[in-house]
Structure formats: structure tokens, C-alpha cells
Specification:
Elements: E1 10-18, E2 24-30, E3 51-57, E4 62-64, E5 84-93, E6 96-104, E7 112-120, E8 126-132, E9 139-142, E10 151-159, E11 164-166, E12 170-172
Antiparallel strand pairs: 1-2, 1-3, 3-4, 5-6, 6-9, 7-8, 7-10, 10-11, 10-12
């Protein structure tokens, strides 16, 4: 299930899943802008092979949702009802990170628990730099991990059962 309020010119939704090589595969397409959920077969139930909803306008310009892990019907963690990060801006300057985000508290069940500011380490693994328990906080400043550029960052909203919704990965200098 997803929630969407978008601009005029809607064309279609695509439900996509990341395959084992990291490419996006279309699982379904809907031209009905009232659609808010989809049930169907996935490529894999591997949590690394995330799913997303992409909205296209009439000009063919896409807007992608957060990436979320696939869940089995009836399970709670990682559902598309998780707290939705709508946008994250991450800057690196003078040895510090400057991160600002906005999110949609779509009243998930289970409820919001915390934000995690993450950086990819030199081994390709996401490392949590800080955990923020206050849902009204939407920024953080701090030092990045000492790995060579380019550095990759993201913000993750986590619900009380561990379900996650991550922002798109952003590359810092």
C-alpha cells in the first residue's frame, strides 16, 4: 500500500523490484491514479532485493518512492506503510555532514521509532552514524566516517518492529 498526492499530468505507476544484479525490474504497471496497493509475485523474497513505486507524468519523468524490503502477506516489518522519507539532502563541507530531510508520517502500524543516519563504509556496508528518536527532528550535523571519496549517505526511517524506509542514496564529495 502507498499514499500519493502528486502533480497534474499523472500517467502511470510502476511497481519495481531490484534484481540480484542491482537493476530495476517492472513487476506491474497501473494507469489508475486511484490505485494505492498491489499484490503479486516478486522476483525474490531476499530483503536486499528491495521494491519501490515509481510515478511517471505525461512527459515520462519519474518520481520514485523509498526502497523497501519485500514482505510476506500479513507481516508487519518493512511494509509499504512504513514511515515514508520523501526527500533527503546531504552535504559534506569542512569535514562535517549536513543532512536535512522531510518525511510523511502516514500513521504506520507499527508506529515510528527512530531515524538512522547511515554512511556506506569502505566494504560496501551501511553503517549507522547516529540514531534520532525524535520524529520532529529533520536535520543532523556531524563527522563522516573516514573513508575515501566518493562517500555515500542515506536517512532511514524505522518503525517500532524494525521495518525500514530508506531515502535514496546520496553521494558526497
Amino acid at each position: 500500500m502507498w499514499f500519493w498526492v502528486g502533480p497534474a499530468g499523472f500517467h502511470r505507476f510502476e511497481i519495481q523490484q531490484k534484481d540480484s544484479t542491482g537493476d530495476w525490474t517492472i513487476l506491474a504497471t497501473s494507469f489508475d491514479q486511484q490505485t494505492q496497493e498491489w499484490t503479486g509475485p516478486a522476483l525474490s523474497l531476499d530483503p536486499a532485493q528491495t521494491v519501490r513505486v515509481v510515478v511517471y507524468n505525461m512527459a515520462g519523468e519519474p518520481q520514485a518512492s523509498n526502497e523497501l524490503p519485500v514482505t510476506l502477506g500479513g507481516s508487519v516489518p518493512g511494509t509499504l506503510q512504513a514511515p515514508a522519507l520523501q526527500h533527503a539532502e546531504i552535504y559534506e563541507s569542512g569535514g562535517d555532514l549536513y543532512i536535512v530531510w522531510n518525511w510523511l508520517d502516514n500513521m504506520p502500524e507499527p508506529p515510528f521509532d527512530h531515524f538512522a543516519i547511515q554512511q556506506m563504509d569502505g566494504m560496501g556496508t551501511w553503517q549507522t552514524r547516529v540514531t534520532i528518536n525524535d520524529s520532529t527532528t529533520a536535520n543532523w550535523t556531524g563527522a563522516p566516517l573516514p573513508v575515501p571519496p566518493p562517500r555515500h549517505f542515506r536517512v532511514v526511517a524505522v518503525d517500532a518492529m524494525g521495518g525500514e524506509a530508506a531515502s535514496e542514496e546520496v553521494e558526497g564529495a
